[in-house]
Write a structure and sequence with these properties.
InterPro entries: FAD-bd (IPR002938), FAD/NAD-bd_sf (IPR036188), FAD_aromatic-hydroxylase (IPR051704). This protein is of the alpha/beta class. It is built from 14 helices and 18 strands. The strands form 4 sheets. Strands 5-4-13-14-15-12-16 form a 7-stranded mixed β-sheet, with helices on both faces. The protein has a 6-stranded mixed β-sheet with strand order 7-2-1-11-18-17, with helices on both faces. Strands 8-9-10 form a 3-stranded antiparallel β-sheet, with helices on one face. It starts with 5 loop residues before the first strand and ends in a 20-residue tail after the last helix.
């Protein structure tokens, strides 16, 4: 085997931790440095799910059982009207091959990050409050200049796992990072409510009103009795002014976005007053847009894009991050640490699969699920009522199971992973 790689990862999230863990499986003596712009690892955010080939990967990693233990225990989603009356229930399928809105692996982002990070935190070099300012690569290395320390260091590989607005992606492509971001027109805030507004139910509740606005409450397994709250706004692509207003609020930070939400949801009915009050009292608030990263390339020799930095895709983004981390480490192993050959193979495998998951259908789905008009709401609610009343959703899942229909899978090579050594 060739010498162990010396790798720099920018950003410490799901993609980075899966990649670092898997690389250490391939090369136990690898030198891994992770720089994170925040002062500590961010362990907040909404629930995420695991689908497609990522399910096989977490089983291979040996952490499926722990992930299942930490899931939100959500059993499905209940659609409610302004009086809190349920008119449709979309239940979890119980089948990891064909999942519904509620995944079999529905887990809070922070809990999933902890599971992936714990085995590697003492095996990597972590540097906080730091980012990559610039890089230059040659035949044998990539030399990085850090933004804060101004240190200059060389590595075999630079992995950009720095999210939607990846500055490294902009450097690699010679463009503004925003040029690869496709706004889906959906914007959400996520926060912890220190009260069980679902009264012990394991069903999430979804309330929609006009203007593409929705309130989403999800169960939290914390024994103290909590709920996860979400405010959702959607705007058509033609609503240039509306999108500009929401994006301005996002750029303004948490306080600005909270003010925007308070104005938008002041008189929408249901539990809005109580949820707005809880939003103001929370110590765990996060807001973001739903967007895809449509990058034409995800590697340039010794520089590679991973996770949201290269192929963000709401709905399957966490799963793509897990797949990408696994594949990048696997290709380095398969190519005997020939970095350029490995990153090229990684791109050839991951980019077409990621692009296949990205389409304008995602935009339309968000608009259909969060209609702008009272007429649109009536149509949506009637369709959902009929689907669940006559069990069309359950019949569809049963038929898919009988026919062997599965979520799209990434066809990965049979990587020559070394056998695990007993701890």
């Amino acid at each position: 085997m060739s010498k162990s790689p010396n790798v720099l990862i920018s950003g410490f999230g799901i993609a980075a931790s899966v990649y670092a863990s898997t690389l250490l499986r391939a090369y136990p003596n690898a030198t891994i440095t992770i720089v994170e712009r925040d002062p500590e690892i961010r362990l907040t955010g909404a629930s995420v799910d695991i689908r497609s080939s990522a399910v096989e990967i977490i089983k291979w990693m040996g952490c499926e059982s722990e992930i299942r233990d930490k899931t939100t225990k959500e059993e499905g989603v209940e659609m409610v009207d302004e009086n809190g009356k349920s008119f449709a229930k979309l239940m979890a399928t119980g089948n990891s091959e064909v999942q519904s809105i509620t995944s079999e692996y529905e887990i809070f982002r922070g809990d999933l990050a902890r599971i992936f990070i714990r085995p590697i935190k003492d095996k990597v070099n972590m540097i906080f409050n730091e980012t990559v300012e610039s890089y230059v690569q040659d035949e044998d290395s990539v030399t990085v200049t850090f933004a804060n320390s101004q240190e200059v260091k060389s590595y075999d590989l630079l992995v950009a796992a720095d999210g939607l607005g990846s500055r490294i992606r902009g450097m690699m492509l010679g463009t503004k990072p925003s040029e690869q971001v496709h706004d889906e027109g959906a914007y959400a805030s996520f926060f912890v409510i220190e009260k069980d507004l679902l009264n012990g139910s394991k069903l999430a509740q979804w309330y929609s009103t006009t203007g593409g606005r929705a309130i989403f409450l999800r169960p939290d397994p914390d024994p103290r009795g909590r709920t996860r709250g979400h405010f959702m706004n959607t705007a058509w692509a033609s609503d240039v002014e509306g999108r500009a207003k929401i994006n301005a609020a996002l750029r303004g930070g948490n306080e600005t976005y909270m003010q925007y939400v308070e104005k938008e949801f002041a008189n929408v009915g249901w539990l809005a007053p109580e949820v707005l009050k809880a939003m103001r009292e929370t110590t765990d608030f996060y807001c973001s847009k739903f967007a895809q990263v449509r990058s034409p390339r995800i590697q340039d020799g010794r520089v590679v894009l991973l996770g949201d930095a290269g192929f963000a895709c709401p709905g399957i983004g966490t799963s793509l991050a897990i797949m990408g981390g696994h594949v990048l480490a696997g290709e380095l192993l398969l190519h005997n640490n020939d970095v350029k050959s490995a990153t090229k193979a990684y791109e050839e495998l991951m980019l077409p699969f990621a692009k296949a998951q990205q389409s304008t259908m995602g935009d339309y789905a968000m608009q259909v699920l969060n209609p702008q008009t009272a007429w649109g709401l009536w149509i949506r609610n009637t369709i959902l009522w009929a689907l669940t009343k006559f069990k069309v959703d359950k019949i569809g899942v049963w038929v898919a199971g009988k026919l062997g229909v599965k979520e799209p899978r990434l066809r990965m090579p049979d990587y020559p992973w070394p056998a695990l050594k007993a701890e």
